[in-house]
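Handoff note, outgoing to incoming analyst
You'll be picking up this chain. Sequence as last confirmed:
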Amino acid sequence: MENYRVKPHSGTTVFYLTTAMMYLALGLLALSPIAIIWLAADWLHNVFRESGTVLSSNPRLYTVLTIIAVSAVATLIADKIYHRVKEQQKRQLEHI
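Most recent structure output, in case you need it:
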């Protein structure tokens, strides 16, 4: 056992590496919705611009309006799911 050597401060190195990886993962998780919206906006802008309809007259406006509408619908759906889960939890607690 006397030949066994431990690096000094190896616990802090592992801590810092783990912390850095967690912050990197959280940063990527925070940026992914922005990247998705950015890609969707670019795609929608191209679709509206090349459509040859009334939407091609002002593709930026219709792109922004479409993204706002989709975001609003997604927020409403998430809110309904949240309230439904809260109600189920409340009912389960009442049965206990």
